[in-house]
Design brief:
By secondary structure, the protein is mainly α. Helix content is about 50%, strand content about 5%. The protein contains four helices and two strands. A two-stranded parallel ribbon has the order 1-2. The relative contact order is 0.11.
Length: about 100
């Protein structure tokens, strides 16, 4: 996290450590990490943002399942970005 600037730190329960939470506080980043079940004091987190993180995490395997994205056939970054965007639109259309 050193040298990065962000408003929120999105992570799963595995990253719920005091060291990470303190580092985020020092950098002015709001941690969106659900507390582990064994914590004595359960802290709040933004559940809506956490659900969005989960959606993105689940979309990555679907994107990699498409051969053109997994092997990066496109020679230019702009072409690759266009392929990723088209695939995201297809995923979104299937969800809606």
């Amino acid at each position: 996290m050193e040298g990065l600037s962000a408003e929120h730190l999105l992570a799963d329960r595995g990253y719920d450590t005091n060291a990470i939470l303190e580092q985020a506080a020092r950098q002015g980043i709001n941690p969106v990490i659900p507390p582990r079940k064994h914590r004595l004091i359960q802290r709040d987190y933004d559940r809506y943002l956490y659900k969005l993180r989960h959606l993105v995490e689940n979309a990555v395997p679907h994107l990699k399942g498409w051969r053109g994205i997994a092997t990066r056939y496109a020679k230019r970054a702009s072409s690759y970005l266009a392929i990723v965007q088209i695939r995201c639109l297809i995923l979104w259309a299937n969800i809606s």
